[in-house]
Each structure stands twice: as structure tokens, then as C-alpha cells.
Structure to design on (217 residues):
């Protein structure tokens, strides 16, 4: 027996007028600030505006210079009209790019330091003094706090990044730096375990050293 079709419980949305459809499309383009084709817009708006209607309305808005359109392969994509950059934005972006480059270099240096520490631990060449271990951890925490503060200042400043890609890149570098710092701290913990495992260091002496240097592990 064929399945019985059931009626939807939710009421159908009121059919939009051309003016309402145009306003809905324009609002969506402004909100996303990305280029879309008529098909993409219709799909993303859950077919509140059909593909055919979206194509016509987008073409009309483009002809009225309300939005911009350009060819992308076999279709046309539309986006909001981009405003010229505010005074000082270009210079601020250059500063931001320099900061990102510096953060990348810091991350690369930390990776080299991490590799060197791992090699020293694996080969057992030299035991790092406890005071130096504590200093490394404190230095890393200070550097991390300073970079986090600068990143927050960049994110919350009056100058807004031009694209989401730049913000994502900063977040990635921040996350990567945090992982690197955590890895180095882990290495310090492993070195401390090796030290406390030496026969010449009793459990009581190790505890006294840990309290003396205020080690966080």
C-alpha cells in the first residue's frame, strides 16, 4: 500500500512581494558581505525567494546600481557595493600585517626551541637547572600574555579588518602559539621527572626543591 501523505503542521509563510523579496536579498548580501549567485541566494534563504525570482530581482538591482555583479564562470555572482576604505585603514592594515609576520617568526623560533629541548631530553646530554626551567616557564607565560593582549587590542580596535580571512589567520597563529607554549611546559615537566628520578636526589630533597622554586607541577 502506498504511504499516506500527511499535511505539514506548520503554516506556510506568507508569499513575499517583489519589494519584500528585494529587501530580503539585499539584507542577506549586506549581512554576509560575500558574492552569491541567484541559486545560492535562493537556497540559503530556504527558497523564500525562488531561483527564477532571485535571478530577475538581482539583475534589476544591479541595473539600478544598488548592488554589484560580475561573471564567475558560467554564472553571475552579486555582492553589495564596497565602500572605499576609511582614512588610515590601509596604514593600520600594514601595521597589522607586520604584527602577524612577527608572531609567525616568534612561533617558528619557539618550534626550534621545542625541537632542541626534545633532542636534549631524548639524548640525555644535559640536565637543565631548576632555576632555568622555572625561568623558561615564566618567560613563556609572560610572552603569551603580552601577545594575547596585543591580539585583543587588534581585535577590539577602531580599525576593522577588511576580510574574515585575516581575523582567522590571527586566531590560528594565537592557537598555534598556545599549543607550542603548552608543549614546552610539558617538556619541562618531563625533565623535572627525570631529575627527581635520579638516585642522588631523595624524595624529600625533590619536594624541598619544588617548593623552593615554586614549580607549578
Amino acid at each position: 500500500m502506498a504511504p499516506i501523505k500527511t499535511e505539514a503542521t506548520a503554516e506556510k509563510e506568507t508569499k513575499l512581494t517583489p519589494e519584500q523579496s528585494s529587501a530580503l536579498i539585499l539584507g542577506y548580501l549586506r549581512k554576509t558581505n560575500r558574492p552569491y549567485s541567484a541559486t545560492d541566494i535562493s537556497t540559503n534563504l530556504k527558497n523564500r525567494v525562488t531561483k527564477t525570482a532571485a535571478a530577475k530581482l538581482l539583475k534589476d538591482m544591479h541595473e539600478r546600481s544598488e548592488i554589484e555583479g560580475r561573471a564567475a564562470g558560467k554564472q553571475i555572482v552579486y555582492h553589495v557595493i564596497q565602500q572605499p576604505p576609511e582614512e588610515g585603514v590601509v596604514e593600520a592594515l600594514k601595521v597589522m600585517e607586520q604584527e602577524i609576520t612577527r608572531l609567525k617568526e616568534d612561533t617558528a623560533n619557539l618550534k626550534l626551541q621545542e625541537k632542541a629541548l626534545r633532542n636534549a631530553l631524548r639524548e640525555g646530554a644535559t640536565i637543565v637547572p631548576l632555576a632555568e626551567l622555572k625561568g623558561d616557564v615564566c618567560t613563556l607565560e609572560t610572552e603569551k600574555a603580552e601577545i594575547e593582549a596585543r591580539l585583543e587590542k587588534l581585535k577590539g580596535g577602531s580599525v576593522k579588518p577588511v576580510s574574515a580571512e585575516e581575523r582567522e589567520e590571527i586566531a590560528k597563529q594565537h592557537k598555534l602559539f598556545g599549543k607550542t607554549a603548552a608543549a614546552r611546559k610539558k617538556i619541562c615537566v618531563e625533565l623535572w621527572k627525570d631529575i627527581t628520578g635520579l638516585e642522588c636526589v631523595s624524595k624529600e630533597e625533590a619536594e624541598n626543591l619544588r617548593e623552593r622554586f615554586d614549580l607549578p607541577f
In short: The mean pLDDT is 79. Strands lie at 67-72, 75-80. The chain has two domains: 18-80, 89-212.
